[in-house]
């Protein structure tokens, strides 16, 4: 099948408009329309519903679009590998991780990586969502659990402990719990089990013999970074990974002798990027910082 026509089709499907696709491809509107009509004739199917607000894919168009997405992703990955082979460590690397990890741990360390590799540009995508690496929504991810996507490579980085943290201001106002059971009389800040990257810290309390009915979660949030900020502001006692509690925050860890659940961050990237020099440099940098 003619790749030029597929390329035009993919651009129109992405833009939802012949005009916008033409601008992206540097083709006239009539040239784009001719390519789409020619492709529809060749396939014997209507690929777009046409209406005044733009173009919508038909069911046949959806099938073809899924195929062109995979082709485009493979071509983009090949382009990255060729550029790496030709230019070395040069160009952009899109890194995604959670808000808390990105701000508290990764961002302060990036100047060293960028200084060592002047040709490297980092695009940092901080989100709780799990981006699709094989579809090139990002090049590398640091996730708080082992990857579940197909066609990716994951490496466990280290094991983090979940702890109970609180501010001195809260303890001055509400008193200090002496036992785990005393938590039933305190305000707790917990991470939502509906979050995109759930942490099962509530299981800790179950293992310690408490019932969920005795808890008082005054605040439930969808990011660990929000737990940290709420703890710092004295909202309550928060469950969070130990790496978030920077000494400068002057937070107090309650019951440090109790072993809570763990989080195992993984470095993840698409299989087609396993030979990428930029990915290799980033992976080596992360491992050296952890060491």
Structure description:
There is one protein chain. With 291 residues, the chain is of the alpha/beta class. 40% of the residues lie in helices and 21% in strands. It contains 10 helices and 13 strands. The strands form 3 sheets. Strands 7, 8, 9, 10, 11 and 12 form a 6-stranded mixed sheet that branches. Strand 1 and strand 2 form a beta hairpin. Helix 1 packs across helix 3 (29-43), helix 1 (3-15) crosses helix 4 and helix 2 crosses helix 3. The radius of gyration is 25 Å and the shape is elongated. It starts with a helix and ends with a helix. The mean pLDDT is 85.
Percentage of helical residues? 25-40%
Give the structural class. Answer: alpha/beta
Query: Globular, elongated, flat, extended or rod-shaped: what is the shape?
Result: elongated
From the alpha carbons, calculate the radius of gyration and give it in angstroms: 25 Å
The count of DSSP E runs of length 2 or more, i.e. the number of strands, is 13
Topology as a string of helices (H) and strands (E): HHHEEHEHHEEEEHEHEHEEEEH
SS summary, helix count: 10
Largest sheet features: 6 strands, mixed
Share of β-strand residues: 15-25%
Mean of residue pLDDT values: 85
Q: Give the distance, in angstroms, between the N- and C-terminal Cα atoms.
A: 51 Å
Low-confidence stretches: none
In short:
The chain has helices at 3-15, 18-25, 29-43, 59-87, 99-106, 110-116, 168-174, 202-207, 224-232, 277-290; strands at 48-51, 54-57, 91-97, 120-126, 140-143, 152-156, 160-166, 188-191, 217-221, 237-241, 252-254, 262-263, 266-270.
């Amino acid at each position: 099948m003619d790749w030029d026509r597929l390329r035009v089709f993919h651009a129109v499907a992405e833009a939802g408009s012949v005009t916008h696709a033409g601008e992206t491809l540097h083709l006239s509107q009539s040239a784009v329309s001719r390519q789409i009509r020619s492709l529809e004739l060749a396939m014997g199917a209507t690929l777009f519903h046409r209406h005044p607000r733009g173009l919508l894919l038909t069911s046949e168009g959806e099938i073809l679009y899924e195929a062109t997405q995979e082709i485009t992703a493979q071509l983009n990955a090949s382009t990255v590998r060729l550029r790496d082979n030709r230019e070395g460590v040069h160009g952009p690397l899109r890194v995604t991780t959670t808000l808390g990890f990105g701000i508290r741990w990764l961002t302060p360390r990036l100047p060293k990586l960028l200084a060592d590799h002047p040709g490297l540009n980092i695009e940092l995508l901080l989100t709780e969502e799990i981006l699709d690496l094989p579809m090139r929504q990002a090049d590398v991810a640091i996730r708080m659990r082992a990857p579940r996507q197909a066609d990716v490579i994951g490496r466990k980085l280290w094991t983090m402990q979940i702890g109970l943290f609180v501010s001195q201001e809260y303890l001055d106002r509400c008193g200090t719990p002496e036992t785990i059971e005393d938590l039933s009389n305190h305000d707790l800040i917990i991470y939502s089990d509906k979050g995109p990257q759930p942490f099962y810290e509530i299981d800790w309390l179950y293992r310690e013999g408490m019932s969920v009915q005795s808890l008082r979660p005054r605040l439930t949030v969808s990011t660990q970074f929000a737990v940290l900020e709420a703890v710092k502001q004295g909202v309550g006692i928060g469950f969070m990974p130990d790496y978030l509690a920077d000494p400068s925050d002057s937070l107090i860890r309650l019951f440090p002798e109790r072993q809570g659940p763990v989080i195992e961050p993984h470095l993840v990237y698409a299989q087609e990027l396993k030979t990428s020099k930029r990915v290799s440099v980033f992976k080596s940098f992360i491992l050296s910082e952890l060491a």
